[in-house]
Structures are given as structure tokens and as C-alpha cells.
Amino acid sequence: MGATAIRDSYEIAIIGAGPAGLAAATYCANAGLSTVLFDEQASVGGQIFRAIEHTPVADKQVLGASYWRGADLANAFRSSSAQYVPEATVWSLTPEREIGVSLHGGSVLTAARRVIICTGALERPFPIPGWTLPGVMSVGAAQILLKSAGLLPRGSTVLAGCGPLLWLVAWQYLNAGAQIDAILDTTPAENRIRALPHAASFLFSSYFRDGMRLLRAVKRKVPFIRGVTELRAIGVDRVTHVEYSRGSAGTHRLAVDNLFLHQGVAPNVNLAMSVGIEHRWSDEQLCWVPVLDGYGNASVDGIAIAGDGAGIAGAEAAEWRGRLAAMAAARALGRGVPTAEETRAREALASCLRGRAFLDAYYRPAKAFRQPSGDTIVCRCEETTASQIVDAVALGCPGPNQMKAFHRCGMGPCQGRLCGLTVTELIAEHRGLSPQEVGYYRLRPPVKPITVGELAALPKTEAAVRAVVRV
Amino acid sequence: MFQRLQPDAAGRTVTLTIDGRSVNAREGDTVAAAMLAAGLDHCRTTPVSGAPRAPYCMMGVCFDCLVVVDGIGNRQGCLVPVREGMRVELQLGKRELR
């Protein structure tokens, strides 16, 4: 196994090699802590800096400066003494900080005195009719294909939804010479008023400067249809058309080979929730956000969360939150951290957070696209529809966990990652309660599926064997 | 439907079998990316209704790219890098008990 041999214990374990994880691991290793970084992907960068060390997109203008910034982070990490374990799926983390990791079909257990969860964000579900058809993908997936494999869409391509990532990917596609036939913008008009109180700080943020340039460049080249209130992907074995309407202005149809959907991102909470870390519903970001102190320390002792998993704030903020969590860990483990270093990190973080409240309000996804109705599939794994969920509420089903018993939604391999927010919001809406009151799926390890054989092959303590074996 | 941005002269080619077809991929591709680049329409059919599915998220969270890799089922195609000689099959419906 050589360099990849997993030790029995570390001073600090970091899960996820995106900007937060890379910055945290680099800091901890440089502070002299024995540090391990587990990541599910084959290479560092997370999704935002995906394939940063080996992307086939050689022309730096295509992906832009915000992507290539990641190369410095990756280099700094590579020059540190942190142990890097790629293609490693962390499927279990206990409150005692025992970590179950699956590597190439076999599992090992390790432990750490401190853990920083940097599992980032995932794209908010976008449940419209036909979103399970081949040819329909998330905008984030389209971007990953570009960064990691140099793939561009072929045939007619439509992007639909709202949020900064949609515009970034449209811009990157145009830079790469791809054709986009239309952007169907679902940003609700009333969001402008909602965002207005946050406009001042946004105007002084880097989001404004960079964002406006990008928006203008895309709108010059791509037919842009605003105010879309209904979307439907149409096809039998693959998508052939997208149908949309704008209020009462009738229905339109476009032929498509690729339909890419996006309506923002939300924290990837599965691992954190499975340890029992307290989360609260954020009305601003419409998702679950962990309860953390100013260093990212969570409600379970010795475990911190940094990056977008701590609440959506973007890649630059993720880096600084990663460093702050690392500083707290270093102090807890008896290493000195200069106050000036922390002050600098806090100032940098504050500057990154400027403008975020505006983006949250402006790109708040429309209710119609968060709370579907009728035959629209909500749970992609178990193919549970919106009307099945609503009908179960009428029968007295009180929450997401009980909904599993009715319709198995959330019990498939994705473990609620693609339906959880929708199910919580639908139940809350139809019970007249807040999402906070309705709650979320109870998540348990293994947070990613592993085989029974893999579990059985784990080393066992004598006590564990005695508990089940009759002598 | 996808196409390569440019012929990747620097990158090395890996040859694998997907659904019985010999396919060239770029070293560094995931199985899911290689399938899309090769023009495959779907990579599995669902155990519930048998509907065809293709990769949706490409980052390991949606499980719609589940395939059989070298005889082992339920592998997430978007997390498995291609390797020379790899055999990838579509994952059709429910798993059969053997």
C-alpha cells in the first residue's frame, strides 16, 4: 500500500478535497499535525476546482481565472506533509471520531482527535416533469464534464433555471466554442424587490464586478427568455423537447438534445447529519445549515464543518473557513496560532461574504420549482411522485421519516440527496408548518452504500465477536 | 449528446469495453464521462419501472450512473476512473439473485 496505507489514528482527519479541505489540510500539516485528507474523487479540487491538475481544457481563457486560482491551493497542499487518500469514500463517522472508509472495494477504520468535514455542496433538486430522462442533466454535471473530460454538448442545447453557476457555465461553454440555443431563466421577478435591501454591499463585492461582465457576455450571444414559470422535459427514452411557459402567455416548445438544469446549491449534509450534528432550516438559503461557532465547530465535540457544507458561501469563503477550522483544531491540539494570522483570515472571510445575501435573495428559486405537483417524480431512486407525497400527508403522514414507510422515498441509493429538500418542503407546505418543524430524513451510516461483505470483512474487537457468537 | 472539445494530443488513450463495444477514452476520464463521450444514451434501467437513466450529477450523489464494472454491480460510473481493458456493462433493472 506504501504511501496510501491508512494509519490507526491521526491527529486530524479532513473529509473532502475541495477548497475548504485543501486549505484546512495544508494548514494543519504545516502546523505539524499528523493530517490525513480523504476524498471520494480520483484527484484534488472538489467540484469547483475539479480536475485542476489534469484538465484537458488547456486554454486558460475557457474556464477563467476563478477556476485556475485552484491550482495554487492544490500546489500548496501537494507540498505539505498531509497524507492524501483519493478514491476514498467515507461512509461512517462516529461522535468518538472513528471513521469508516471504503477504498477500492475494501473498508478500513481509522480515528482522529479532530475531524473537519469539508463535503461541500450539491445542486438543489430541480424536480420538473421529465427530469429523469436521459439528455437531462444538471448544469453542474455539464461543467464537470467540461473540466474533467473536455466534453462539450453536441446538438441543440438549452440551459434552464437560475443562479450564478448557470451563468458561469454558459460563459465557459461560449469560451470553448459550444453553441447554446437558449437560456430559460426561472428567476422570479419578485426576487428583485427581495434582494434590494442587500444591494449596497453587493455593489461593492467582487461578485458584482465579475458577475455583470459575465452576464453581459452571455446575453449578447444567447437567446435569453426570462420569467419562465413552468418547465417540462419531453421525450420517451430520451429528452427531445423542452416545453416552457411564462405566466399566462401560453406554452412554447423547443427541440433539444441536451437540457441542463440548475437552481442553486445546498449543503451536502449527509455525513454531518449522520454523526448527529445539529442543523437548522435556513429560510434565506432554503436548506439545512449546521449550527456552528465562529471556527466551524459543530455540536458534536471535536468535529468542525468548513466550506459550503457549513452554509453556501462560495469557493473563496470555503478556503478561509477551512483555515479557521484548522486554526481552532491546531489550538485544541496544543499548537500555537498567532492572533494576527486569525485576524487576517477573518478579514478575508468577511470580504468574501460581502454580496452573498444579495445573491441568496436574488436567485432564490421559485416555489413552483421547489414544490412540484402531480406526476412529477420527486424521489428519483424510488420513483415517488409529488402527488403520492401530498396524498400521504392527507392520510396523516407527518414527516419525511414516516414518508419512507409510505413510499420508500429517500430509501434508495442516493439516500435523499436528490429528494430530501423537496420532500421536507412539500410536507411542510401541505401541513401548514415550517420545514424546521417538519424536519429531515434521519440519516445513518453507511452514508454511501457499501456491500455487506465489506462490512463483514472489517476487523472486529473480541467483545464484538463475543456479542454475536455463541460459544 | 457530447463531443470532445479538441483532440487531446497530450492525453493518453485508454481502451475499454462498454456494453460489448470497444471504446477509446482519455486517461483521467471517469466511466460515466467515457460512456457519454462514446454516445451511449443511458447507463442503466431502474429497478422500479425499468426506465432508462443516464448520469445526472457527475459528482457521486445521484446514483443514476450505476453500472457493472468488471463484473461488480452498483458501481458509480462517475467516481470510477477508466482503466485499460476495463469491462463496463449497463445495469439493467433489479439485481438478480445468483
Secondary-structure topology with pairs:
The complex is a heterodimer of chains A (471) and B (98).
Chain A: E1 9-15, H1 19-30, E2 35-38, H2 60-63, H3 65-68, H4 70-78, E3 83-85, E4 88-93, E5 98-103, E6 106-117, E7 121-123, E8 136-138, H5 139-149, E9 151-153, E10 157-162, H6 164-175, E11 182-185, H7 191-195, H8 199-203, H9 206-221, E12 224-225, E13 230-235, E14 239-245, E15 251-255, E16 258-263, E17 265-267, H10 270-274, E18 279-282, E19 287-290, E20 303-305, H11 315-332, H12 339-353, H13 356-362, H14 367-370, E21 377-379, E22 384-385, H15 386-394, H16 400-407, H17 420-431, H18 435-438, H19 452-456, H20 462-468
Parallel strand pairs in A: 1-2, 1-6, 2-3, 6-20, 8-16, 10-11, 10-16, 11-12
Antiparallel strand pairs in A: 4-5, 5-6, 7-17, 13-14, 14-15, 18-19, 21-22
Helix pairs in contact in A: 1-4, 1-11, 5-6, 6-9, 11-12, 15-17
Chain B: E1 2-4, E2 13-18, E3 21-26, H1 31-37, E4 44-45, E5 52-53, E6 66-69, E7 72-76, E8 87-92
Parallel strand pairs in B: 2-8, 4-8
Antiparallel strand pairs in B: 2-3, 4-5, 6-7, 6-8
CATH topology of chain B: Ubiquitin-like (UB roll)
Q: Determine the number of helices of chain A (DSSP H or I, runs of at least 4 residues).
A: 20
Number of DSSP-assigned strands of chain B: 8
- SSE string of chain B, helix = H, strand = E? EEEHEEEEE
Q: What's the number of structural domains of chain B?
A: 1
Which class do the helix and strand fractions of chain B yield?
A: mainly beta
Number of H/I helices of chain B = 1
Largest sheet of chain A: 7 strands, mixed
Which CATH class of chain B is shown?
Answer: Alpha Beta
